[in-house]
Amino acid sequence: MANGIKIGDEVSITATVRRRGREDRVSVSIPSCGFPHSIVDNTSTVKKGQPIELSDVTLANG
Fold first, then answer.
1. CA-to-CA distance for 58 and 7, rounded, in angstroms?
2. What span, in angstroms and rounded, lies between the C-alpha atoms of 19 and 62?
3. 44 Cβ partners below 8 Å, 6+ apart?
4. What's the CA gap between 49 and 57, in Å, rounded?
5. What residues does 51 pair with on adjacent strands?
6. 4 phi-psi bin (left φ>0, alpha ψ -120 to 50, beta other)
7. What φ, ψ does residue 21 adopt, rounded to 5°?
8. 43-60 pLDDT, tens per residue?
């Protein structure tokens, strides 16, 4: 983890879209994590391979 970032801090992360599941969900790959994440995204039209910015992400322990 980068210096100066603590649990509870809000950050922005750039992820890559893996696929769109249902209409309101997108599977993304975050470079620093070893597994995919599913996020709610019912407003954009992102496609597989496109970057997507996740903003107002709150860091948690674990």
1. 8
2. 25
3. 52
4. 21
5. 16
6. left
7. -85, -110
8. 777 888 999 888 777 766
What is the DSSP annotation of 2-61?
A: -TT--TT-EEEEEEEEEEE-STTEEEEE-TTSSS-EEEE--S----TT-EEEEEEEEP--
Sketch the domain layout of the chain as residue ranges.
14-54
What pLDDT is stored for residue 18 in this prediction? Answer: 92
CB atoms within 10 A of CB 17: 19
Which amino acid appears at position 53 of this protein?
E
φ, ψ for residue 16, nearest 5 deg: -110, 135
What is the spatial distance between Cα 39 and Cα 37, in angstroms, rounded to a whole number?
6
